[in-house]
């Protein structure tokens, strides 16, 4: 049986089921981007509503340690476009199985979607959402 | 299993939490040690969603006191997903009656999809700008008077103070502010975008940077700018009335005049907008 923990990050501050969960404030990132306390405070208040261990430091090291402590070999991570989070997930993938997941999307679009301008995207998205622009007056 | 880096969860009140965060994150406290009045958490998000009068959104959203959802801090972290928001408002009011709002939710989806494609490229110009001014003419740093809210322009200084105190700005204010920074002050959009991300509780590199690029015209076919009439209308004149520079306002002209001044190829690299250069 594989044991699983979940790593909660900024692109999805919510937990799934009762799997042990950890959030790590990435100190190096916050320092290099000069975050003000407001941003940290807002995230913190979101975390206080969740059953999650809150830490600070290097996310890769802290998440790996947390997984080891729980005897887990799988880490559940929400899909993210953030390159820094992606690279950290890649590093964790050297030691652990990564279970990548995503919540229900806003709209399901068949690939490829032309993203050069919003109007091209919206043409497809509005139809998929059930909003036919021609019907609007 | 309590590691030394583990942070506290047991607070009597918000101020106690803030004290803890100030100790744990001294660098952030030095940037600005205030908390946003916007509370975090799913509970707060749901109550905000319940209060949102989505039918008034389309007609009033461009006014600073108009009906906007205020949900961006929550959707940014998917505390509440835009799919959930869409489903809720469509179910409550009817999909077609909240068309404009759903379209604005779609902008976030669009930006996130682009972010997946671009990665770190989110910090680079998507396209060449259309201002007629060479990219090298824009300064790399935010001017001190803007960051400290000391431009003397009541509107811009209020936006700076609102951003740093609340971690939030109305979308129209973000656009005016970005246009002022980029076009009037000739600052690279990246400098403004980075500064916004230090403070915005809904700070997201995709929505933020691509909106700055839209204003800059590196992600649109023409630069976005505004004039006093436009700002005065959507703010109900509340800044202009008491502005120390109300009789010397750099925004007080027609669009053609402003465009000629701001984007003239004849305007050399060195001739930035100077506070003394004003419209009576």
Counted beta strands of chain A: 5
Sheet with most strands: strand arrangement of chain A = 3-2-1-4-5
Radius of gyration of chain A: 18 Å
Relative strand content of chain B: under 5%
Largest interface comes to: A-B, 56 and 68 residues
Secondary-structure class of chain A: alpha/beta
CATH class of the largest domain in chain A: Alpha Beta
Which CATH architecture of the largest domain in chain B is right?
Orthogonal Bundle
Largest sheet of chain B: none
Low-pLDDT residue spans of chain B: none
Given the C-alpha coordinates, what overall shape of chain B results? globular
Outline type of chain A:
globular
CATH level 1 name of the largest domain in chain B: Mainly Alpha
Total of helices of chain A: 5
Strand and helix order of chain B: HHHHHHHHHHHHHH
Overview of the molecule:
The complex is a heterodimer of chains A (137) and B (280). By secondary structure, chain A is an alpha/beta fold. Chain A has two domains: 4-101, HUPs (Rossmann fold), CATH 3.40.50; 105-137, no CATH class. Chain A is built from five helices and five strands. Chain A has helices spanning 27-32, 37-48, 59-69, 83-93, 118-128; strands spanning 4-8, 21-26, 53-57, 74-78, 97-101. In chain A, strands 3-2-1-4-5 form a five-stranded parallel sheet, with helices on both faces. The longest helix of chain A is centred in the first third of the chain and has 12 residues, at 37-48. Chain A is globular and about 55 Å long. Chain B is mainly alpha-helical and 280 residues long. Chain B folds into two domains: 42-119, Serine Threonine Protein Phosphatase 5, Tetratricopeptide repeat; 135-263, DNA Cyclobutane Dipyrimidine Photolyase, subunit A, domain 3 (Orthogonal Bundle). Chain B contains 14 helices and no strands. In chain B, helix 10 (171-184) crosses helix 12 (205-216). Chain B starts with 13 loop residues before the first helix and ends in a 17-residue tail after the last helix. The mean pLDDT of chain B is 94. Chains A and B meet through helix 1, helix 2, strand 3, helix 3 and helix 5 of A and helix 1, helix 2, helix 3, helix 6 and helix 7 of B.
């Amino acid at each position: 049986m594989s044991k699983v923990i979940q790593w909660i990050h900024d692109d999805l501050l919510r937990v799934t089921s009762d799997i042990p969960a950890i959030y790590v404030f990435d100190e190096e990132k916050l320092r290099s981007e000069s975050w003000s306390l407001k941003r940290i405070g807002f995230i913190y208040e979101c975390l206080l509503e969740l059953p999650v261990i809150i830490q600070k430091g290097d996310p890769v090291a802290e998440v790996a340690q947390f997984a080891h402590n729980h005897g887990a070999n799988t880490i559940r991570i929400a899909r993210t476009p953030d390159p820094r989070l992606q690279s950290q997930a890649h590093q964790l993938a050297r030691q652990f199985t990564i279970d990548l997941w995503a919540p229900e999307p806003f709209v399901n679009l068949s690939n490829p979607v032309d993203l050069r301008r919003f109007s091209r995207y919206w043409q497809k998205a509005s139809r998929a959402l059930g909003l036919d622009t021609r019907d609007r007056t | 299993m309590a590691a030394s880096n583990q942070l506290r969860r047991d607070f009597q009140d918000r101020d106690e939490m803030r004290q803890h965060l100030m100790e744990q994150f001294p660098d952030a406290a030095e940037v600005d040690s205030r908390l946003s009045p916007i509370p975090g958490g799913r509970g707060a998000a749901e109550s905000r969603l319940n209060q949102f009068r989505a039918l008034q959104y389309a007609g009033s959203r461009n006014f600073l006191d108009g009906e906007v959802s205020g949900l961006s801090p929550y959707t940014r972290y998917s505390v509440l997903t835009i799919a959930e928001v869409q489903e809720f408002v469509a179910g409550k009011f009817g999909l077609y009656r909240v068309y404009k709002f759903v379209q604005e939710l779609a902008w976030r989806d669009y930006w996130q999809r682009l972010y997946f494609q671009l990665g770190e490229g989110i910090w680079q110009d998507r396209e060449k700008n259309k201002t007629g001014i060479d990219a090298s003419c824009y300064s790399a740093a935010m001017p001190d008077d803007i960051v400290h809210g000391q431009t003397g322009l009541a509107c811009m200084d209020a936006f700076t103070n609102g951003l740093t105190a609340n971690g939030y700005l109305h979308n129209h204010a973000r656009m005016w502010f970005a246009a002022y920074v980029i076009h009037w002050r000739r600052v690279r959009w990246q400098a403004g975008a980075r500064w916004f991300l230090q403070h915005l509780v809904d700070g997201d590199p995709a929505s933020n940077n691509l909106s700055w690029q839209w204003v800059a015209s590196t992600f649109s076919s023409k630069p976005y700018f505004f004039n006093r009439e436009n700002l005065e209308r959507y703010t109900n004149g509340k800044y202009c009335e008491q502005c120390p520079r109300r009789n010397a306002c750099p925004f007080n002209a027609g669009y053609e005049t402003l465009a000629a001044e701001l984007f003239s190829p004849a305007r050399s690299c060195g001739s930035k907008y100077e506070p003394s250069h004003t419209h009576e």
